[in-house]
Amino acid sequence: MRTTALAALILCGALWAAKPASKPKRPPLTPEQRVAQSILRGMSLRDRVAQLVIGVAYGDVPSRKSRDYEKYRHWVHDLRIGGLIINNHVQYGLVRNAESHAFALFLNQMQKLAKTPLIVGADFERGASMRVSEGPKFPYNMAIAAAGDVEEARYEGLETAREARALGVQWVFAPVADVNVNPANPVINIRSFGENPDEVSKYVAAFIEGAHSDPKNRVLVTAKHFPGHGDTNIDSHLGLARLDASRERMNEVELKPFQAAIAHGVDAIMTAHMAVPAIEPEEIPATASPKVLTGLLRNELGFNGLIVTDALDMLGFARQFDSGDGSVRALEAGADVLLMPPDPEKAIHAVLRAIERGQLSRQRIDDSVMRILAAKVRAGVIQKKLVDVDEVSDALDSGDAGARVQQMSDRAMTLVRNDQTLVPLANPNQACLAVVVGARLSQYGQQMAAEFRHRAPNARVTFVDPSMPLAAMNDAFGDPSSCSAVVIAVFSTGGPLNGDVPRFVDKLTESPSVLVAMGSPYVLGDFPRAQADLAAFSPTPPSEVSAVKALFGEIAIEGHLPVTIPGLGQYGGGITSAPLAKK
Length: 583
What we know:
Layout: H1 2-18, H2 31-41, H3 45-50, E1 53-58, H4 67-79, E2 83-87, E3 89-91, E4 94-96, H5 100-113, E5 119-122, H6 141-147, H7 150-167, E6 171-172, H8 197-211, E7 220-226, E8 241-242, H9 247-252, H10 256-263, E9 268-271, E10 274-275, H11 290-300, E11 306-308, H12 315-318, H13 323-333, E12 338-339, H14 344-356, H15 362-379, H16 392-396, H17 399-412, E13 414-418, E14 432-436, H18 446-455, E15 460-464, H19 470-477, E16 486-490, H20 501-508, E17 513-517, E18 532-535, H21 541-551
Parallel strand pairs: 1-2, 1-12, 2-5, 5-6, 6-7, 7-9, 8-10, 9-11, 14-15, 14-16, 16-17, 17-18
Antiparallel strand pairs: 3-4, 13-18
Helix pairs in contact: 2-15, 6-17, 7-8, 8-10, 13-14, 17-21, 18-21
């Protein structure tokens, strides 16, 4: 009897031990997830996959008979893609912004074609004016950091959200969370808040808080470019960039702003097309690496929001992967959203084939679609997908915002060197201004030239660009010895100056000269003979006005360097200068 009872006990224990452990229960669905789930149930597998795709469009209203319109109609109505990102047109080699009214009208047209409302994104890193002609022209992030007031980043987030919602945009691909520690960085540079990861984190957090602060105009916001694009010297639009930093250094620098963004409720994180050997030994972009997106971002940093790829048509990704294979690889890595695949239809078919052969599971797809649909609910586009086109221009015509943006630009002006006290200009009517722009017919410098001429009608103003040979530049500028001071305004957003521009600028610095960095501050270190160095950190029109005001002594110069300029200025440096007394 005892033997039988003992055997029974042993058998029960063995059966209990063999029972598989119960799976951890998923947390209960939030209200937005319940709405998302109800939408998901009504979708075919093909429609679910299509929700992962964001196609690129432009903010104009194409004719309904045009190829462009038919392409967009096919994507939205037939393929049922999840959303659109609005980009700039490039015409004759120049970037052209859309008119706000046309922008909103086009998005309304697309929304009417969509069975499931589209999520519409835009790279509003500097407010809506980055993609439309109207609206306050916010300076680049580095200028905001030079001014030293975190509240300005919070205000920019608030204003950007308001402008975006008026236009029909619910997803802002900002803020830039990269820490720019590499002076040779050609693609991040002044888009970054600077080289100090703790300061960058503060500005990133403030932008997110501002963008989320008004419930009526709340947008989705995106920290980019994970795991940190600030220490690279290759533009990932053109090739595979590389972050050669140890994991320990990444913890102290690159990852801090992303951790701050996650802590402050960022909705999405955008991947970077760059190799990260400290995390992923294979020479592939982070966008295609499970170690980076799932291992580091999801598991270690605990991010549960949307992971969106950077544009899949960028050469840093597209040289290794086409639309189909690249889309599958990004989803395998852990991405939820496929941004700008070169061929959306090919991307959808490739993902469906990957599911059929077991490379991707249906559950993996459903998890991402649930995140996307929940984000659409949270952004309010499920409830209201159209905007009032008649109110768009009024929404962007904010005099108060314009005045505040001008103040931001004024406060960013940073005097790095002022030998012989050339700034402010002692005799501006006999000064000469050389405006150095990156391309012919560029709009850069037009506002600066007009402001300079308005104050000094007799001053000589010359425009040069890299297409001109050195002799032509010298002939256009004339004899510098006749100038009381030579002001050289260089418009560059990053990377080395092209053509004969460096030789031209270097020659001018033999005369008493003020070098003005209307963009990347690092160019100041390339011309050590200049007597004075002034940084605006931004080539926007308000910054052009600010530079002229600083040169003429109309404003106090109080900015401080948010980066180190090798051989010239240390982080935090800056010479304060009081305005001239009014006559």
